[in-house]
Design brief:
alpha/beta; about 1200 residues; about 20% helix
Length: about 1200
């Protein structure tokens, strides 16, 4: 017997060798046959090999196909002699999904438009044992399910698709599902998030809601299956889908008109695809994802809840059904109008009926005559209508392979929820993915204190912006201008969310437990203290209660604070988002804004041609990926913005879903993530375009952290005889990368040909919409009508607003709300008391003045949608400007978002500005003919008065007077009912000379945020130049402004009205501008340390330095000769570009500015070739001057 020490050493060595062998056997399980690998591992045990590497294998490109299905016995037998042959006709789909549960060949004998049971609103019938609602809870989610082995679905040259009516109503659907269920266990929407032993509630009998009915059991999925020879057409989600399966073959299939993916296979092994063409995807979808939210919410409120309550027996059913009438609710916009829950749900149903009637008739259905129906239809149009027809979901894929599970998170995120090993042996040969277009929309959501999103029953996000208003009684704007004035406006859809939440509370206390600590998972308002409870039913336990939640209310989630905001006008979003005092209150009540998700808070991922995730041994051969287009916004204006809450002073920032930047605008030709041994052979990737985001030909993330094997075995991707074309176009400033790899060792690219890289796209793209407007003179044009506070201003403003004084007051409140949140001023109590005399200045407690000013001299010169401009516009086009100014008292300290907690003092001669433009006349831009387009603007920094401008404004707004003078002036306006103000426009010449340059004028740089209910949020930049006419000595004002909107607004599209002939002047007496040079730098411009003295004084703050390229352009391509920046504020209060003040220019430059402008959104004229013409070919109004010294040009 050996000594114990020897036994221990031998045991340890043997154990280590065995463990190493087993680990390597698992890691290398697919590189050779099981017998060969076992022999190799035995050699490892004997010490004949080191075990550091897998058995050496030849590159897959030189080997046989990883899945040569044509040679396999099961494929040949199924093709030659199937167990049975079944012919499928349109009539076989009349009652619902065709469920294949027996082996055989199923042949489509004609085209099939799948749209079952229109008489039952396309839903499965109650108590139908073929479609138990526990499994078919969201309707007919497939046309064909393959739930057994050895099936050949032969399309026989025909097309299987959704009918157009069914497509608009069944918003969750796959044409062919290779299993008996659509979600893996514990995944998916709450109603279908099931375990195998969950009872199949609503299983077919009248009383099996929570009784001893059937269970869901283990998934039944396809193995040894063929789908071939035809077209898979219109689908609201995917063409082919499965979460399980093996030995699957798809050949000679065209998949098109899908909304999510052509092929999406999760957790499958041994797949062969040959001659599969994917694309185009659906590009004529008339509705946004909100239609899906409304449709499924209607399913719960109209079908599941009444039918389910009735199943709960005579002891409870009557009182539960009575809740629909006994429970009433009112909303913040109309607190005195109480509605029963049944009425609220009926309004949802009616709105859908009206919208579907119009859509089914292709817009030819007569408009309703009932006023309530007209209002509901208008709300439905605003909520649903998709003007572009492009998919707005998180992503569009051509072909997607992924580990088992839905995979709705970020790319590669599924690895965090371990689902087993990678899936093996996937062969794609002679396939095409082309013509995929999408525009994913980010929907900011509301994150609850426990990390859950406020949502409806099927993961549908409560769209915060679409239901917020700037006043408690106003309509939703979708812009959420200020949080403390963001009240609930809502519509039929969001009203139903609040009503359903109230019903869930009432149901829980009536049927389960009476408690003050919330209920279900839908109420996240549990108190952090002991609660009094009274159990109603003692026979309900854990999972049974959870199943009740699923069946009646799905994933509905809300908090008491959100409910109060929706139902009580006293609450604003600041009450929801602000932190309460104390740790407990903070944990209970604080909410946050969640970004980077779509309408179902799926991570945004853009457009992807082919995605391979968590797979191994893949061959992609003779395959083309071309013409992918993404027109989404890179980010959302709300996400990334910082806002100071008025009451608490805390800084509010959004939270990104997934933690990283948004990929909404990304485009990827081939994405390989957490995979290995992928071969790309004789394939092409080209034609990838993104309007705003980056573009990647091949995007590789290696298998370096996969839990199934801790390091990649050889190259992750081997590329042979393939090419990435040169037609890769990214958005402005974004990267167009042919090949990106996060792991250099994971790539073999000897056989890759890359076209010459396109130049970096750093040019300014034309915004989605833009307007050029301003004040210009020619000849002896009359001075513009600048109306100071008083009766004339009141009459002119009411005329501009069509006599709607309430609209004027809303504009005033919006401006005041901006001043409050952005500058930390508390104005609301004072201004509300002065609403009757809004045309007069209001004295504020801080010694400042809030006053209106009206200008009717602006003219609209051009309106552009992208690069297509209409101009010059009709003579009747005009722009009225209702300004609201705050003339601050000396030394006033501003806080809010602008000044922060420390505050910034106002300098002498500065004022705060906000207001409203009214674009009106014969053809206002972007609104129906004869309408008025209202655009609000907000100055985000104090505006500094120039010398000339101060001379002009002082008689209007005597900010230099002492407080007693302001009080007297305001009293004069009020006592005279606004008949006059201190003075009229100045008539005396105001001449300011500049040594060596003759008469001159100041230029005030105008930079404002602008907001439009039609166009969204944008930016207005330009100049205001009050100057002295050298002939008359009069002060004249030249205003040239360019307004750009580049954010997607999910609302009905509007077109520019008809325009006059190109030669028609915009207005008599105004000049036709020839060139508009607009420079917008939204951010901090870097300066070398030496230029700002930072090398000597490290704590100094950089002021705003000029852009040398911009100066060179002005000199070379325009008659404008920049003499240099002569005046800046003494304090570096505004380091951002939009806060820049003004500069002084010579008289000769003024001529160039006034007579040298054209309505163009680009910064230069272009020649016939589309490229910028050389300076020698440009016509100059003045010869170029010698370059000025560097310091003056800056």
């Amino acid at each position: 017997v050996p000594p114990p020490a020897v036994v221990g050493v031998v045991h340890t060595v043997a154990s280590q060798m065995m463990n190493a062998g087993l680990r390597t056997l698992w890691r290398c399980r697919s590189t050779r046959s099981p017998m060969a690998t076992a022999a190799w591992c035995f050699a490892l045990f004997l010490g004949h090999t080191t075990g550091q590497d897998c058995p050496k294998i030849e590159p897959a490109a030189a080997a046989v196909d990883v899945y040569p299905y044509e040679t396999l016995a099961w494929y040949q037998e199924l093709k030659a002699s199937p167990a049975r042959t079944v012919t499928l006709l349109q009539a076989d789909f009349a009652n619902g999904t065709y469920r294949i549960s027996e082996p055989g060949r199923y042949v489509l004998a004609e085209d099939v438009d799948f749209g079952p049971l229109p008489d039952n609103d396309y839903w499965p019938r109650e108590n139908d044992p073929a479609y138990p609602q526990g499994a078919w809870f969201l309707g007919f989610w497939a046309a064909v399910t393959i739930e057994t082995d050895d099936v050949w679905l032969d399309l026989a040259g025909h097309t299987l698709r959704m009918s157009s009516a069914f497509h608009l109503r069944q918003r969750f659907f796959n044409l062919v599902e290779l299993a008996d269920r659509v979600f893996d266990s514990h995944e998916g929407v709450a109603s279908l998030n099931l375990q195998t032993n969950d009872r199949l509630q609503f299983g077919g009998s009248a009383h099996d809601l929570s009784g001893s009915g059937r269970t869901h059991g283990a998934p039944r999925h396809a193995r040894r299956c063929i789908v071939s020879n035809g077209v898979l057409g219109l689908s609201s989600h995917n063409g082919l889908h499965s979460n399980w399966g093996s030995d699957l073959v798809f050949e000679d299939v065209v998949i098109r008109d899908f909304e999510v993916a052509g092929v999406q296979l999760n957790g499958v092994d041994r797949v062969g695809m040959r001659r599969v063409q994917v694309g185009p995807n659906l590009q004529t979808m008339p509705a946004y994802a909100a239609l899906s939210n409304a449709r499924f919410l209607e399913l719960y409120t109209r079908r599941f809840i009444p039918a389910g309550f009735a199943r709960l027996g005579p002891d409870y059913a009557p009182q539960l059904l009575a809740l629909l009438d006994e429970q009433t609710i009112s909303y913040a916009r109309a607190p005195d109008a109480r509605l029963s829950l049944r009425v609220v749900f009926a309004r949802l149903h009616r709105a859908l009926q009206l919208w579907y009637a119009r859509e089914d008739a292709e817009g030819d259905a007569p408009l309703p005559s009932n006023a309530d129906d007209v209002a509901l239809l208008a709300q439905a149009e605003a909520r649903f209508r998709n003007p572009t027809g492009l998919a707005d979901g998180s992503a569009v894929y051509g072909i997607r392979f992924h580990r088992r599970g839905a995979g709705t998170g970020a790319l590669g995120e599924q690895d965090q929820n371990y689902r087993g090993p990678e899936h093996l042996n996937i062969s794609m040969r002679d396939c095409v993915v082309s013509d995929l277009r999408a525009r994913p929309l980010m929907v900011p959501a509301l994150l609850t204190p426990d990390g859950t999103v406020v949502q409806g029953p099927v993961r549908d996000v409560l769209d915060l912006l679409r239901i917020s208003s700037h006043s408690a009684a106003g309509s939703a704007s979708g812009l959420m201008r200020t949080l403390h004035e963001a009240h609930y406006a809502g519509d039929f859809l969001s009203d139903a969310y609040a009503a359903l939440w109230q019903l869930s509370n009432a149901f829980y206390t009536t049927y389960v437990v009476r408690s003050q600590c919330g209920n279900f998972g839908s109420n996240l308002t549990a108190a952090y203290a002991p609660c009094d409870t009274s159990v109603v039913r003692n026979d309900l336990f854990g999972r049974q209660v959870s199943m009740l939640q699923k069946r009646f209310f799905g994933g509905l989630t809300m908090t008491q604070r959100v409910y109060e905001w929706m139902t009580d006008a006293r609450f604003s979003l600041e009450d929801v988002l602000g932190t309460r005092e104390g740790l407990v209150q903070s944990k209970q009540l604080r909410h946050q804004i969640l970004c980077n998700g779509d309408a179902m808070f799926h991570n945004l991922k853009g457009v992807i041609g082919i995605q391979l995730g968590f797979v191994a041994d893949v061959l992609v051969s003779n395959t083309t990926v071309t013409h992918l287009m993404n027109s989404a916004d890179k980010a959302h204006w709300l996400c990334g913005a910082s806002v100071k809450l008025l009451r608490s002073g805390e800084l509010l920032r959004s939270v990104p879903l997934g933690g990283g930047p948004s990929m909404a605008a990304d485009v990827r030709g081939l994405r390989v993530g957490l995979s290995e041994r992928v071969v790309l052979r004789n394939s092409l990737i080209d034609g990838l375009h993104s309007v705003e985001g980056p573009v990647y030909g091949i995007d590789l993330s290696p298998d370096s952290n996969d839990r199934s094997d801790w390091e990649p075995q050889g190259p992750t991707v081997t590329i042979i005889g393939s090419a990435i074309g040169g037609d890769l176009r990214a958005g402005t400033g974004a990267r167009a990368v042919p090949l990106r790899s996060a792991h250099a060792a994971a790539l073999e690219t000897g056989g890759l040909k890359v076209a010459p890289a396109p130049p970096m796209h750093n040019q300014l793209d034309a915004p989605r919409a833009s307007l050029l407007y301003g004040i210009f003179y020619s000849g002896d044009a009359p001075a513009p009508a600048w109306l100071p506070p008083g009766a004339r201003l009141r009459r002119a403003v009411l005329a501009a607003f069509g006599g709607d004084e309430a609209a004027v007051l809303r504009a005033r409140r919006k401006a005041a709300g901006f001043f409050e949140q952005h500058y930390g001023l508390h104005l609301a109590p004072v201004l509300r008391r002065k609403e009757r005399n809004w045309e007069c200045p209001t004295l504020l407690p801080c010694g400042s003045v809030f006053t209106p000013l009206f200008v009717d001299a602006y003219r609209l010169l051009a309106a552009c949608r992208g690069e297509e401009c209409a101009g010059e516009l009709a003579p009747g086009s005009r722009v009225d400007d209702l300004m609201f100014l705050i003339l601050p008292a000396a030394g006033l300290v501003l806080h809010g978002t602008f000044g922060g907690e420390e505050g910034v003092a106002v300098s002498a001669g500065e004022f705060l500005l906000a207001g409203t433009y009214l674009f009106r006349g014969d053809n206002p831009p972007f609104v129906p003919e004869g309408g008025t387009h209202q655009i609000d603007y907000y100055g985000t920094c104090p505006v500094a008065l120039t010398t000339t401008l101060s001379t002009f404004l002082t008689p209007l707004f005597p900010a230099t007077l002492p407080f007693s003078g302001l009080l007297l002036a305001a009293a004069t306006c009020l006592l005279s009912r606004g008949r006059h103000w201190l003075a009229s426009l100045p008539t005396q010449p105001v001449v300011r000379s500049t040594s060596g340059h003759g008469s001159s004028f100041d230029t005030l740089m105008i930079n404002c945020h602008v907001e439009s209910d039609v166009l969204g949020r944008g930016h207005s930049a330009g100049s205001w130049q009050p100057h002295v006419d050298p002939r008359t000595g009069q002060v004249r004002h030249v205003v040239a402004l360019h307004m750009a909107f580049d954010d997607i607004v999910p609302s009905p599209d509007a077109t520019t009205g008809a325009t006059a002939d190109a030669g028609t002047a915009p207005h008599p007496g105004t000049a036709s501008p020839r060139l508009a040079y607009v420079m917008i730098a939204d951010g901090i411009l870097p300066s070398p340390p030496a230029a700002i003295g930072a090398g000597v004084h490290p704590l100094s703050t950089a002021l705003h330095y000029g852009n040398e390229a911009g100066v060179a352009f002005l000199r070379g391509y325009t008659p404008i000769q920049v003499r240099g920046v002569h005046s800046f504020p003494t304090k570096a209060r505004c380091p951002r570009a939009e806060c820049s003040s003004h500069w002084l220019m010579g008289q000769s430059a003024r001529v160039g500015v006034i007579s040298g402008m054209v309505p163009m959104s680009m910064a230069a004229t272009r020649g016939d070739s589309g490229r910028m013409s050389s300076p020698a070919r440009q016509h100059r109004l003045a010869p170029p001057r010698p370059s000025l010294p560097r310091h003056t040009s800056e």
